[in-house]
C-alpha cells in the first residue's frame, strides 16, 4: 500500500463528520492544555504548523489578521509586484470558473499579504468578515495555520481542511495553495490560493493550483527572456514610434510627435519648430514652417495643440483607421456637425488640417490617415479588450473631448465610457470601484456607488463615506 501524501488534506477526496470531530478535539486539547495529539489524529504538516502558531502567540479565538495595505498604497505595491505580470494567466486558469465552482482565488506576496482576492462574489463577501481581503496579511505568524501562509512557511504546496485551521473563525473554510518562485533566481515571490467549502480540499484542486503555478512561472520565464532579448543592443528600428493623439479629458486634442532626427535638418532652427514627423513611407513630410500652425494649432516642443474642429476631425479619421477605413466629406460632415451641413465646409477644414500636418499624413478621396497614429482612446480600448481593467482605468484621463457635440465624437465618448463602466462593475474589485467613483462622470451613478459599497469589507474605513454618498444620491424618501 502506497504511503499517504502528507500534503493532501483528504486523499480520498471525501470529508466526513468523523474527521472533523477528531480534528476539533485534537485542536482543543492543544490550545487549552498543550496536549499533543496521539499519532495519526492530525497530519504532521498540520501539527507542526499548529505548534508554530502556538509558539508565535497566535490567539485561536483572536481578532482577524491585520490589513497592512489599502487603497492607493495597495494598488501601487501590487502593480510593482512581479506577479502582476502573470495575473492574466491566473485569471484565465482559475478565476474564470471560480464563480461557478464556488471558490475564491487569492494571490499573496512572499510574506502572506493578499494582493488579489477574486472569484465568487458571495463567498468573498462572507470571507471579508475574517479579513480575507486584499491588503490583509495571512502569514502563519499572524493568522496561524492556513493554506497560503503554511505553503509560504514550508515552501511547498499544501491543503488545509476545515478544522485543521488554527484559528476557529477560519475552520468553516478549506483551502489549497502553492508557492510561486522566480524561475530565474529561485526567489519566493508569493503564493496562489483557492479557498471555499470542503470541496476545495479534494486532491484535484491542489493539482489545479500547482498547474497554475507552473503556468505562471513559465510565463515569468518567457517574460524574462523577452526582457533580456530587448536589452541586447539592436540596430535602430526602421519605423519610429507613432504620433500620439490625446483626446481623453481634454477640450482640444494634443498631438505628440516622436523625435525624428532624419527630418530635423528640413526644418528651420528654433524651439517653435524643432520637431518633425517621423520618417516612413506615410509620414515623411515635415510640418510646414511659420504661421500655418496658427490659429488652427499651437506648438510646444514636440506637441501640437489642435483647434476644436481639427481635434474632432483627426479623432474621427483615427477611429476610421482603426477599422482600416476612410471617410468621405459627406460622412465626416454628418459625424462632425450636429445638424445638416454642407460637405464643402468640412472640405475646407480638412484642407487646413492637411496643410497643418502634411498631405502625406492625411490623404483624400476618401479622407484617411496614410500613416500610423495612436490615440489614448484606443490605448484604453485595447487594455479593456485584454482584460487589463486596472491599467485601462489608470490610463483613462476623462471623457473623449468632453465639450464636443459632434455626433461622431459623442458616439466614441459614450462607447468608451460604457465599456470602462462595464469592465469595472464586472471586476467587483473594491479598489477599482473606489478609483472609478473619483471620476466626475460617475458622481451620480447610483449603480456604481452601490456596487462599490457591496464590494467593500465591513471593516473598510471607506464604507461610511460611500454609504453617505449613496444616501445623498437617493435623496430623502418622499411620503405619498
Task: Describe this protein with a few key phrases.
single chain, 480 residues, alpha+beta, 5-stranded antiparallel beta sheet, 5-stranded mixed beta sheet, 17 helices, 12 strands, 41% helix, elongated
Question: What would you note in describing this structure?
Answer:
It is a single chain. The protein has 480 residues and is α+β, with helices and mostly antiparallel strands. Helix content is 41%, strand content 11%. It is built from 17 helices and 12 strands. The chain has helices at 17-33, 44-55, 71-79, 87-93, 121-127, 140-143, 147-154, 203-231, 308-322, 329-336, 343-357, 376-385, 389-395, 407-427, 430-436, 446-455, 463-474; strands at residues 103-109, 114-119, 158-160, 174-181, 188-196, 244-246, 254-256, 297-300, 303-306, 362-363, 368-369, 374-375. The strands form 3 sheets. It has a 5-stranded antiparallel beta sheet, sandwiched between helices. A hairpin with a 4-residue loop joins strand 1 and strand 2 (114-119). The longest helix has 29 residues, at 203-231. It is elongated and about 95 Å long. Mean pLDDT is 83; it is low at 261-297.
Outline the fold blueprint.
Blueprint: H1 17-33, H2 44-55, H3 71-79, H4 87-93, E1 103-109, E2 114-119, H5 121-127, H6 140-143, H7 147-154, E3 158-160, E4 174-181, E5 188-196, H8 203-231, E6 244-246, E7 254-256, E8 297-300, E9 303-306, H9 308-322, H10 329-336, H11 343-357, E10 362-363, E11 368-369, E12 374-375, H12 376-385, H13 389-395, H14 407-427, H15 430-436, H16 446-455, H17 463-474
Parallel strand pairs: 6-12
Antiparallel strand pairs: 1-2, 1-5, 3-4, 4-5, 6-7, 7-9, 8-9, 10-11
Amino acid at each position: 500500500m502506497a504511503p499517504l501524501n502528507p500534503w493532501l488534506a483528504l486523499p480520498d477526496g471525501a470529508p466526513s463528520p468523523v474527521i472533523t470531530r477528531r480534528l476539533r478535539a485534537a485542536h482543543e486539547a492543544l490550545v487549552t492544555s498543550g496536549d499533543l495529539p496521539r499519532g495519526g489524529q492530525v497530519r504532521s504538516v498540520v501539527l507542526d504548523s499548529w505548534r508554530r502558531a502556538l509558539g508565535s502567540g497566535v490567539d485561536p479565538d483572536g481578532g482577524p489578521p491585520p490589513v497592512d495595505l489599502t487603497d492607493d498604497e495597495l494598488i501601487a505595491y501590487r502593480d510593482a509586484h512581479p506577479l502582476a505580470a502573470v495575473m492574466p494567466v491566473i485569471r484565465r486558469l482559475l478565476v474564470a470558473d471560480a464563480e461557478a465552482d464556488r471558490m475564491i482565488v487569492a494571490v499573496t506576496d512572499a510574506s502572506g499579504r493578499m494582493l488579489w482576492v477574486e472569484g465568487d462574489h458571495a463567498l468573498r463577501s462572507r470571507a471579508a468578515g475574517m479579513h480575507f481581503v486584499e491588503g490583509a496579511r495571512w502569514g502563519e505568524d499572524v493568522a496561524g495555520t492556513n493554506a497560503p501562509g503554511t505553503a509560504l512557511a514550508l515552501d511547498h504546496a499544501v491543503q488545509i481542511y476545515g478544522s485543521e485551521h488554527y484559528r476557529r473563525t477560519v475552520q468553516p473554510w478549506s483551502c489549497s495553495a502553492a508557492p510561486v518562485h522566480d524561475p530565474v533566481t529561485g526567489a519566493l515571490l508569493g503564493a496562489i490560493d483557492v479557498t471555499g467549502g470542503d470541496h476545495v480540499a479534494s486532491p484535484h484542486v491542489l493539482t489545479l493550483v500547482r498547474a497554475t503555478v507552473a503556468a505562471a512561472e513559465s510565463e515569468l520565464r518567457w517574460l524574462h527572456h523577452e526582457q533580456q532579448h530587448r536589452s541586447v543592443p539592436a540596430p535602430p528600428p526602421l519605423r519610429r514610434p507613432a504620433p500620439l493623439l490625446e483626446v481623453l479629458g481634454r477640450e482640444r486634442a494634443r498631438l505628440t510627435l516622436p523625435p525624428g532626427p532624419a527630418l530635423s535638418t528640413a526644418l528651420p532652427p528654433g524651439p517653435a519648430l524643432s520637431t518633425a514627423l517621423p520618417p516612413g513611407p506615410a509620414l515623411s513630410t515635415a510640418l510646414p514652417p511659420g504661421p500655418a500652425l496658427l490659429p488652427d494649432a499651437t506648438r510646444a516642443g514636440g506637441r501640437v495643440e489642435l483647434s476644436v474642429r481639427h481635434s474632432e476631425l483627426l479623432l474621427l479619421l483615427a477611429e476610421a483607421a482603426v477599422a482600416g477605413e476612410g471617410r468621405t466629406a459627406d460622412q465626416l460632415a454628418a459625424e462632425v456637425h450636429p445638424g445638416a451641413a454642407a460637405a464643402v465646409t468640412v472640405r475646407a477644414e480638412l484642407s487646413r488640417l492637411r496643410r497643418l500636418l502634411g498631405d502625406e499624413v492625411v490623404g483624400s478621396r476618401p479622407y484617411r490617415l496614410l500613416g500610423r497614429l495612436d490615440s489614448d482612446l484606443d490605448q484604453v480600448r485595447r487594455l479593456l479588450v485584454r482584460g487589463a481593467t486596472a491599467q485601462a482605468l489608470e490610463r483613462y484621463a476623462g471623457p473623449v473631448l468632453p465639450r464636443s457635440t459632434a455626433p461622431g465624437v459623442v458616439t466614441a465618448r459614450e462607447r468608451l465610457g460604457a465599456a470602462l463602466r462595464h469592465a469595472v462593475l464586472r471586476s467587483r474589485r473594491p479598489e477599482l470601484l473606489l478609483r472609478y467613483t473619483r471620476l466626475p462622470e460617475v458622481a451620480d451613478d447610483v449603480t456604481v456607488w452601490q456596487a462599490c459599497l457591496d464590494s467593500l469589507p465591513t471593516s473598510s474605513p471607506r464604507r461610511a463615506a460611500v454609504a453617505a454618498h449613496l444616501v445623498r444620491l437617493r435623496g430623502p424618501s418622499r411620503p405619498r
